[in-house]
């Protein structure tokens, strides 16, 4: 009978042991966390693809690191970053985030401790100079420069020819010359010359930067509108375009792209990242060429090169930042081969100088009639004047959009610039 | 196995008691647990459906406020003259178009501010081919696709209503089109009914589910159904966009019969379905509660089983110990009593244990005492009776024997063999002296030997010496006492019955000590007889015998009575071989 009691006791103990065995694997997740790098970026055709290439290059040598690439809309990223950083909690934020250069300073200065300095991670001198300004604060590099926003003038050569021009006539011209040619094209072909969105003054930014000027002064905080000769001429050029009646209006990105893919508009001065959108219309192969961006007619400082958009990588000051910085340094910070791949597979032009000598950079592009577009862009990159985008690019632009309408509706240019300056002064401090 | 069976026999009471107790403990605990679980399930279901009706109300009210915002925005759009102008005018100069687009964007921006809390994209299309869209990524359908889109066609059928429709990559054919809910309405001229445009408010399903997602949990799902039974939105990704006619039927039933909830088997599970019809959306909000999961969270089956098992085993152990103690003394008593064999009345039981068993033991012991008294008395009476019988038999020495013996002596005297006559007379005298004396006395084996010799001598005198008698007596046995007239009847038997067919033979008389018993044997090589094993010779009466009444059975009974079961007479015999009589008596000294 004693045996039975022992048996009962043993079975009770076994049963209770079974129940406690279930919650043993709780701390497995925490150790894995540190070797995982989360990255936020937008644009699946461009940035995400580039990241995947970088990831493949890195994980080949570092199999223990997990890289998690999350795609978000740029506005979402901006919003989430602002929400997370201003609340002071870094929970849920990624290790690496892509930030547009125009916005970089506003983040870097508003949240000074939120970003991890990358000064030791890469050699700043190896990157295009104009990218260093927006990505650094007080001589410390926080952003690893990524894509180039170097601009060019995409032109339909077939329409040009119908109007009696050739691509040679487009080389290193001024905006006034550009408008004249546009008029001729419109007259001969009925096609508009350029597509613009009244709510996006990218063309103004390109013009301003081509003359080494910006919405803000060198300090990056004071608005530089009234008395900004480059900007004033940009306004006037914008109105000339409108008055020449060669502008097609679009309201959003898809209409913008559609205007070119449908063949309704003949030229587009914009950043090189527009190449994939142009080449999307395969039936237009051989009908496009890329010329240097026109320069301001009356501004001696203006050159035939500028920048539009472009972004850089930032490491947030959260656990795992060393790993994240190491990842960036080893891939986009130094890997020449990776940049070659980026050019060949995505058409992404980086700002890493040592990569510019590679084979891929000198390849001829059949879509653009055999033009060596990458090498052309690279050569224009070197000419881009360096400006400080400061912290308030988009805040100022919102003011300028309104004033531009006033200007188009007949307000005098000086009054427009003065009013804009006043508003900017009161809004940004 | 046998031991186990024995154990069971003696512990029968305990085993039965224990089994009954265990069974009832288990039955009680299982029933209690089952009832409690059942009851709590029911209560849980009731409360769950009450709280979930509240939840649905809340979802409904937040959806209603969303709908209100959309309605405000759509009214603003349809009432705006400038938007109407934008959508109807022809393309003009760049400058005027820039102006128009800019104003449009300003208008829409203002209108959109009423939708700021929601991530809603507004798309407006006009008869002039213009499209204006905010947040196009929410619903990435190109302008051309939009004109032939099923949602546009659906809206045109009911141009006056703001209708909600579902769209995804499969339906629109646009890759990258995530599940989206589109509220759309035609823009109409109120007087002429001319449709001059269309407006779409797109909210991604991902965003839409925020209205209810926080109320969901594992096993508690919310589904939004359109009137065709398509799941427009659900917290479970895999359901979105799937048709579910069953769910629609239940939702309709609940709505039409104003039920609180309904228990149905759907999606392969037993579920509680709550539903609410959203008139403004023309959609059903359905709450599905998976009974198994929801109650599984409530009831930790493993824990309950463990607790019940622990309680049951604790109870069983206690019951086991207590009933064991109760029955142990009784079992011991029963065991002792049952081992007491027939004649061992002096084995008392141990008195102990509970009051009842103590009393029982004492009563049993007293009964044994009395029984022993009675047995003693009985034995005494029997002995006395036997002795009296024996004495009576002794008195009846067969007159024929005397007559025959005396006649033989007379012949001897007449023939002049005086010596032999005197010897015979002496033997007879000695024999009679012995037979007539106290029957309960014992005599030594040597004395008995003398008696036997006298008897044999007389027989030889009377019938001649054709039967020879030999004596083999171990010298160390000579001193032992034997009851009188024990061996003589067997010798007599051998003389008168063993040699009816054979003319002559031998009788051997042997005595020896065997362990703690004296064995006397009378063996003849005469005719023998058929015996069933162990049976005793009947004692036929004959005139030639010394005693008429002392039969073999008498001897056996007497020995047993005097010395106990271990002693007595055994006879073995074989036809033609002879008979062997074995008398077993204890070693007696004086």
Describe the protein in words.
The complex is a heterodimer of chains A (429) and B (590). Chain A is 45% helix and 12% strand. Chain A has 17 helices and twelve strands. In chain A, strand 1, helix 3 and strand 2 (66-71) form a beta-alpha-beta unit. In chain A, helix 9 (202-210) packs across helix 10 (229-243) and helix 16 (393-408) packs antiparallel against helix 17. Chain A is globular, with a radius of gyration of 26 Å. With 590 residues, chain B is an alpha+beta fold. Among the domains of chain B are: 80-207, PAS domain (Beta-Lactamase, 2-Layer Sandwich), CATH 3.30.450; 396-586, Heat Shock Protein 90, CATH 3.30.565.10. In chain B, 51% of the residues lie in helices and 19% in strands. Chain B has 17 helices and 17 strands. In chain B, the strands form four sheets. A five-stranded antiparallel beta sheet of chain B has the order 2-1-5-4-3, sandwiched between helices. In chain B, helix 2 (12-79) runs antiparallel to helix 11 (301-339). The longest helix of chain B is centred in the first third of the chain and has 68 residues, at 12-79. The A-B interface holds A 1, 4-5, 8, 11-12, 15-16, 19, 73, 192, 196-199, 241-255, 258, 401, 405, 408-409 and B 93-95, 97-102, 104-105, 131-134, 136-137, 140, 142-143, 302-303, 306, 309-310, 313, 316-317, 320, 324.
């Amino acid at each position: 009978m004693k045996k039975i009691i022992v048996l009962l006791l043993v079975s009770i103990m076994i049963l209770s042991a079974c129940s406690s065995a279930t919650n043993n694997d709780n701390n497995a997740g925490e150790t894995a966390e540190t070797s995982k790098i989360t990255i936020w970026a937008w644009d699946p055709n461009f940035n995400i693809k580039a990241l995947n290439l970088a990831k493949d290059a890195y994980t080949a040598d570092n199999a223990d690191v997990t890289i998690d690439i999350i795609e978000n809309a740029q506005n979402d990223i901006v919003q989430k970053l602002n929400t997370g950083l201003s609340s002071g909690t870094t929970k849920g934020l990624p290790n690496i985030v892509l930030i547009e250069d125009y916005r970089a300073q506003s983040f870097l200065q508003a949240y000074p401790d939120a970003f991890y300095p990358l000064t030791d991670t890469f050699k700043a001198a190896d990157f295009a100079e104009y990218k260093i300004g927006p990505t650094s604060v007080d001589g410390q590099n926080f952003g690893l420069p990524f894509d180039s926003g170097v601009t060019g003038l995409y032109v339909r050569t077939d329409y040009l020819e119908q109007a009696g021009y050739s691509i040679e006539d487009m080389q290193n011209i001024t905006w006034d010359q550009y408008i004249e040619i546009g008029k001729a094209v419109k007259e001969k072909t009925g096609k508009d010359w350029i597509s613009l969105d009244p709510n996006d003054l990218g063309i103004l930014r390109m013009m301003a930067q081509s003359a080494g000027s910006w919405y803000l002064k060198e300090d990056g905080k004071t608005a530089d509108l009234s008395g900004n000769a480059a900007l004033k001429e940009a306004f006037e050029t914008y109105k000339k375009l409108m008055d020449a009646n060669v502008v097609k209006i679009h309201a959003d990105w898809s209409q913008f792209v559609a205007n070119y893919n449908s063949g309704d508009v003949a030229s587009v001065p914009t950043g090189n990242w527009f190449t994939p959108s142009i080449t999307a219309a395969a039936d237009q192969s051989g009908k496009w060429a890329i010329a240097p961006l026109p320069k301001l007619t009356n501004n001696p400082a203006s050159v035939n090169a500028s920048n539009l958009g472009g972004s850089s990588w930032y490491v947030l000051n959260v656990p795992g930042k060393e790993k994240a910085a190491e990842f960036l340094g080893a891939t986009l910070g130094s890997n020449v081969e990776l940049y070659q791949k980026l050019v060949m597979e995505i058409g992404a032009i980086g700002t890493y100088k040592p990569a510019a000598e590679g084979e891929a950079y000198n390849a001829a592009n059949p879509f653009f009639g055999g033009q060596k577009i990458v090498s052309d862009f690279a050569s224009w990159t070197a000419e881009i004047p360096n400006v400080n985008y400061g912290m308030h690019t988009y805040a100022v632009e919102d003011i300028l959009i309104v004033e531009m309408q006033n200007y188009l509706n007949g307000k005098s240019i000086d009054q427009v610039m003065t009013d804009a300056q006043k508003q900017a002064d009161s809004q940004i401090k | 196995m046998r031991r186990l069976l024995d154990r069971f026999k003696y512990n029968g009471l305990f085993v039965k008691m224990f089994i009954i107790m265990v069974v009832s403990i288990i039955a009680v605990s299982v029933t209690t647990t089952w009832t409690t679980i059942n009851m709590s399930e029911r209560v849980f279901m009731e409360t769950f459906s009450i709280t979930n009706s509240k939840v649905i109300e809340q979802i409904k009210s937040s959806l209603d406020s969303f709908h209100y915002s959309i309605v405000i925005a759509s009214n603003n759009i349809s009432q705006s003259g400038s938007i109407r102008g934008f959508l109807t005018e022809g393309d003009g100069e760049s400058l005027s178009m820039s102006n128009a687009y800019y104003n449009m964007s300003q208008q829409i921006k203002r209108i959109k501010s009423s939708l700021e809390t929601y991530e809603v994209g507004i798309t407006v299309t006009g008869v002039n081919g213009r499209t204006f869209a905010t947040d196009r990524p929410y619903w990435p359908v190109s302008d051309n696709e939009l004109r032939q889109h099923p949602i546009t066609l659906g809206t045109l059928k009911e141009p006056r209503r703001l209708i909600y429709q579902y769209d995804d990559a499969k339906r629109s054919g646009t890759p990258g089109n995530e599940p989206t809910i589109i509220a759309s309405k035609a823009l109409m001229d109120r007087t002429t009914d001319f449709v001059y445009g269309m407006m779409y408010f797109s909210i991604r399903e991902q965003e839409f589910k925020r209205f209810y997602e926080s109320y969901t949990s594992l096993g508690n799902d919310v589904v939004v159904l359109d009137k065709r039974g398509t799941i427009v939105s659900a917290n479970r990704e895999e359901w979105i966009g799937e048709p579910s006619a069953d769910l629609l039927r239940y939702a309709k039933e609940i709505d039409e019969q104003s039920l609180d909830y309904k228990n149905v088997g759907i999606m392969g599970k037993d579920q509680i379905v709550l539903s609410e019809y959203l008139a403004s959306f023309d959609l059903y909000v359905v709450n599905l509660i998976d009974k198994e999961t929801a109650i599984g969270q409530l009831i930790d089956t493993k824990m309950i089983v463990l607790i019940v098992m622990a309680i049951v085993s604790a109870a069983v152990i206690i019951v086991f110990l207590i009933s064991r103690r109760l029955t142990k003394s009784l079992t011991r008593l029963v065991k002792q009593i049952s081992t007491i064999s027939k004649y061992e009345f002096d084995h008392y039981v141990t008195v102990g244990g509970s009051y009842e068993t103590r009393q029982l033991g004492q009563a049993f012991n007293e009964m044994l005492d009395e029984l022993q008294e009675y047995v003693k008395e009985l034995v005494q009476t029997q002995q006395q009776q036997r002795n009296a019988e024996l004495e009576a038999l002794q008195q009846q020495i067969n007159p024929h024997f005397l007559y025959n013996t005396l006649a033989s002596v007379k012949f001897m005297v007449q023939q002049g063999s005086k010596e032999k006559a005197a010897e015979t007379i002496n033997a007879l005298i000695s024999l009679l002296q012995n037979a007539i004396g106290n029957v309960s006395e014992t005599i030594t084996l040597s004395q008995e030997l003398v008696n036997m010799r006298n008897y044999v001598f007389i027989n030889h005198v009377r019938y001649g010496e054709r039967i020879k008698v030999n004596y083999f007596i171990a010298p160390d046995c000579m001193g032992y006492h034997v009851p009188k007239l024990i061996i003589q009847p067997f010798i007599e038997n051998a003389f008168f019955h063993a040699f009816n067919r054979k003319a002559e033979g031998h009788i051997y008389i042997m005595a020896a000590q065997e362990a703690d018993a004296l064995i006397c044997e009378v063996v003849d090589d005469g005719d023998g007889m058929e015996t069933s094993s162990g049976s005793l010779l009947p004692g036929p009466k004959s005139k030639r015998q010394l005693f008429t009444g002392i039969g073999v059975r008498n001897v056996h009974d007497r020995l047993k009575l005097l010395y106990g079961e271990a002693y007595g007479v055994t006879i073995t015999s074989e036809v033609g071989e002879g008979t062997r009589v074995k008398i077993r008596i204890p070693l007696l000294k004086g």
